[in-house]
UniProtKB/TrEMBL annotation:
Record's protein name: Outer membrane protein assembly factor BamE
Positions of the Outer membrane protein assembly factor BamE domain: 33-108
Protein keywords: Cell outer membrane, Membrane, Signal
Signal peptide: 1-17
Keyword presence, DNA-binding: no
PANTHER family attached to this UniProt entry: OUTER MEMBRANE PROTEIN ASSEMBLY FACTOR BAME (PTHR37482)
Keyword Signal: yes
Gene3D superfamilies, alphabetized: 3.30.1450.10
Superkingdom of the source species: Bacteria
Amino acid sequence: MTNVTFPRLLLAATLTAAGLLTSGCAGYRESRGYILDEQLASAVQVGTDNKTSVEKTLGRPTFTGQFNDNEWYYVSRNTSTLAFRDPKVTEQTVLRVRFDAAGNVTSVDRTGKDQIASIDPYGRTTPTLGRRKSFFEEFFGNIGTVGGVGAPGAGQGQ
C-alpha cells in the first residue's frame, strides 16, 4: 500500500513545485500617464478653444514643448511584462495641442505606438574624440599640476 501512495505523493509534490515556480513568471499590465477620454479629446476644437479652456477640459498636460511653451502633450501608455523581461508597449497615444501666440488652439494631433523609436546604445562605452589615456595616466596625470606656479588656484610666487 505504501508503494501506491508514494508515486501519488511524488506527483503531487512535483505539480505543487511546478505551480510555485511558474507563478513567479506571471505577467502584469501597467498604465502610465494621462488617461485619455475620447469624448473630451474630441471636444477640443481648433479656433474656438484656448489654453484656459483646454486645461479645464483635459487638465494639465503631461509635459509642454521643450523649446516652445505653446505645445502641450498628453501622453498615455499601456505596457505588459512577463516575469523579469523588459516591458513591451501594447498601446500608446500622444495628443499634441498647439497654440498660437495669443493662446488659441491652432491644431490637435494624435499619434500612436508607431512613433516609438528603439534606441540601441553603441557598445558599453561612449566613444570620445581625442587621445585615449591608460589607467595610470588618468590616475597619476594630475600630480604636480594642482597648485603649481602659474596654474589656476596657485598662490602668488613664493
